[in-house]
Amino acid sequence: MLESPLSGITILDLTHYVAGPYCTKLLAGLGAEVIKIEKPGTGDGARRLGRFFQDDPHLEKSTLFLYLNTNKKGVTLNLKSATGVRIFKDLVKQADVVVESFSPHVMPSLGLDYDSLNAIKPDLLMTSISNFGQTGPYRDYLLTEMLGLAVGGLMSITGDPERAPLKLGAKLAQYITGLHGYMVTMMAIHCRDNTGIGQHADVSVMESVSSILDVTPMWASYQNAVRPRAGNRHTGAYPFCILFCRDGYAGIMAESPKHWETFCKSILKKPELTTDPRFATSHARLQNPDELDAIMLEWTMEHDKEEIYHTGQALGLPFGYVATFEDVIKSPQLRAREFFEEVDHPFVGKALYPGRPFKMSGALWEPLSRAPLLGEHNEEVFGRLGLTQQDLVKLREQNVT
């Protein structure tokens, strides 16, 4: 029988908002028991971020929180209390990994830095996710999603050259950081299984963003040149762009000689463009993009985006289109691969959630289960430490759980 890769691994999740919870969400999907530890009464700050189900700002109705915390168990614990710290240390003795996303000074101030926890459990793994990392002159600086994209360099190459740099639509800085946290945690588990040695992984938002700048830093180093923003046009080949079409936007990619010839003769029905000195080569087309766009728009504005997509693909051209959320949900490709999963939640009911980001032939990805209610698994998890229901009542009265 197939088994989930991380079955038997217990992870204490001290993360909040986006990057850390996405990391632990992926680990939970691979079968780890992820115990999400939240502040009593208020919980993860993502619980207070919209959008909310039916615009009701309820702690159990944040769609962001619900998405990022599937397949986890939830407990509440006040780490600012001595009793809460003691209970956490007892949990560490039974865990394999701690993932935290506090500012770098927080865990040491609580007496929960890696060296202290490693003394309790020598093979413990810890992944720390922060804005700028655990060291360096910026380590205690604050950061938002947009500033993460900005200081990491990605915004400098995003948007039209005549206008201000653009923020990307999704929380890319946070999600790529969470993905890096997931990868390094998996590697640490693998190393520990081989060596028996624990370690502390340090992941930063800034470095995660700067790691996906493509060849921009190399270009700057080799040529002492700054890569210009190009909007929806490719700076090295053309056509490689997004254009208006009859019902939205289509992606036209026909920059190679073979693709350009096919595009002109079979789609635009303008074979003369292949010999026109303005458009005959990719370099020439890069010098005359506005004139070429006008010609291509005559065709795209007479067709729908999916028609353009399938027409190009049928001819071996890497065409695409800008899919709306409705398009994504209805995508025959994603449906065929059973990407979306229905999840039922007691406060918001049933909804489709994005599911596993990959498939594995030799192991299982856990089916999605709903995010935990605040403190839902206190009795189950703390019961492992010998705490009774009466103990938990007292701890709740003392604002420990």
* CATH fold-level name of the largest domain: Rossmann fold
Number of helices: 17
Count all strands and give the number.
11
Taking strands numbered 1, 2, ... along the chain, how are they ordered across the largest sheet? 3-2-1-4-5-6
CATH H level, superfamily name of the largest domain: Crotonobetainyl-coa:carnitine coa-transferase, domain 1
What is the architecture of the largest domain at the second tier of CATH?
A: 3-Layer(aba) Sandwich
Mean pLDDT over the residues: 94
CATH class of the largest domain: Alpha Beta
Distance between the termini: 38 Å
Number of domains: 2
Q: How big is the Rg?
A: 25 Å
> What is the strand content?
5-15%
What is the string of SSEs from the N terminus onward?
EHEHEHEHHEHHEHHEEHHHHEHHEEHH
Structural class: alpha/beta
Instruction: Based on Cα principal axes, name the global outline.
Output: elongated
Q: Segments where pLDDT lies below 50 for 5+ residues? A: none
Structural notes for this entry:
With 401 residues, the chain is an alpha/beta fold. The protein has 2 domains: 10-212 and 336-397, Crotonobetainyl-coa:carnitine coa-transferase, domain 1 (Rossmann fold); 240-323, formyl-coa transferase, domain 3, CATH 3.30.1540.10. It has 17 helices and 11 strands. It has helices spanning 19-29, 63-68, 82-93, 106-109, 114-120, 145-151, 172-195, 205-210, 216-223, 257-267, 282-287, 289-300, 305-314, 325-330, 332-336, 378-383, 389-397; strands at residues 10-14, 33-38, 72-76, 97-100, 125-130, 199-204, 240-245, 248-253, 320-321, 340-345, 349-354. The strands form 3 sheets. Strands 3-2-1-4-5-6 form a 6-stranded parallel β-sheet. The chain has a 3-stranded antiparallel β-sheet with strand order 7-8-9, covered by helices on one side. A two-stranded antiparallel sheet has the order 10-11. Helix 1 (19-29) crosses helix 7 (172-195). It is elongated, with a radius of gyration of 25 Å. The chain starts with 9 loop residues before the first strand and ends with a helix. The relative contact order is 0.14. The model has no long low-confidence stretch (mean pLDDT 94).
